């Protein structure tokens, strides 16, 4: 942060009484430098000047705020009491004869009405008391009429005279003795000494051409305490009339100072309360406060000061203006850290603060995650499941599963989003008859956490049930299909023919000798030809399972061992061959070698006399319902258990 170092002077001298009015203003000029003593050129700043009665801790009788910009040399100037940016009280109403007066100087290098930095408080010793005498003329402060003015001495804390002798006796007495011409730059907020007309000759004091008036008058004379009695010397000792006049004036001023009194307007700063913080995370929080009273002036800004120490609330966040409740969100905090904060509100009268309160950000931990059981296990795939039960007080940026064929080598990784809660991931391309190991994981800025290692085993691609072979085609449902027709011992054999709902073969298939009269949506096991002939591990496929076979397999018209039929190749590369076995009506076998007709266990509900069956030829394939249930068709079984 930039810090201002001011070279300050007040260009007001004590005066002789005349018939003219004293100007109600004090010239103020300074140079701003940063912490490296470099001139702060062309920089916006704000100055707050407070005139205090009686003692440095006395009653505020006047305050003004200046918003200004330094010039190319870091210099700026104005007149206290004239056209301030904002003010409390009236400068013209100050009773300079009513007691000791002190000047407090605060500044804001951000030019945002945050007067948290101060140059301290100094006492007006001689200069402003000319106001108490009415209209006055110039008095030299050193004993020789050589143009002395007063400058602030940082060592003594007082405004003291500095000699500014020049050719022709320095500053001459004007016909209009309000202030010297060279100090009347009230229309120029910043200026160099060389820019002002009718200036005294300071050639004996300027060391470089760029040196300004402020550089000269900043010199202090610590040998002179600048008390009222010191003003008796600056007259020509040979001029008894003038000396008598001045002695009389000094006596009057001293009497006025000895009878300090009066007072000035006091405007309170805004009243503010600090409330509990909320929405506390590992890196942020919401601060709350309330301006309960504006103190009689408009609240220009409000917000919070905060930091990691009650003695260093150096960070600031603003939150609008006016009275009432207000909040501000702060981010970028360190986890597990206690922060101190207080609300503030600023008006032209100053800044009011609430009490200092604290909150502690959450400590960041690695997340908590658990591994759940796998599901939908097929010969080539499975769905893994996990759950992030705790985010570790920060965002979970990644989660997923590590897996492999050994508990010591979970080298494969699949991700599944971010955040907390349950999550899943479906694996594909697995090997059949293989045990896989897996564990869930979750990651945040503190690291990666893992759940327990669990296992699942993919089923085999082929096998037997009751001596009859099956194959896993890698279908979504996991359905395993028989490799032969019921009644056949090889994939290319036609096998037996059955009427829908009958479990034995016949020599003739007619509507008259059809024996199954029930109309179930799906055949029960007692009327299922596959179950009746191959045992409880087998059944006829539903129409849905037949449609899945069509939708997920590559279907090809082919010939195997001299037999025509359709080859159904599943997603995993395994296949089954269904021969074009035709069908039986009455005592005849028809369309063998050209058509295939395979019963499902599903009734055609829009016409109870028919049932769904898989039909194909060399020209196409699909699900049909036109054959009556009494016809003798082929049956290709599926396993009862899918796992």
Task: Explain the overall architecture.
The protein is 6% helix and 38% strand. With 643 residues, the protein is mainly beta. It folds into four domains: 5-258, no CATH class; 271-360, Immunoglobulins (Immunoglobulin-like), CATH 2.60.40.10; 368-457, Immunoglobulins (Immunoglobulin-like); 462-639, no CATH class. It is rod-shaped, with a radius of gyration of 51 Å. The two termini are 72 Å apart.
Q: Strands, helices and their partners?
A:
Layout: E1 5-10, E2 15-17, E3 26-33, E4 44-53, E5 59-69, E6 75-80, E7 86-88, E8 101-108, E9 117-124, E10 136-138, E11 149-153, E12 158-162, H1 213-217, H2 240-258, E13 271-278, E14 285-293, E15 301-307, E16 315-318, E17 324-330, E18 338-347, E19 350-353, E20 357-360, E21 368-375, E22 382-390, E23 398-404, E24 412-415, E25 421-427, E26 435-444, E27 447-450, E28 454-457, E29 462-465, E30 468-472, E31 480-482, H3 529-534, E32 538-539, H4 543-552, E33 554-560, E34 563-569, E35 575-579, E36 583-585, E37 588-590, E38 595-603, E39 611-617, E40 620-624, E41 638-639
Antiparallel strand pairs: 1-3, 2-10, 3-6, 4-5, 4-8, 5-7, 8-9, 11-12, 13-14, 14-17, 15-16, 15-18, 18-19, 18-20, 21-22, 22-25, 23-24, 23-26, 26-27, 26-28, 29-30, 30-31, 32-41, 33-34, 34-35, 36-37, 38-39, 39-40
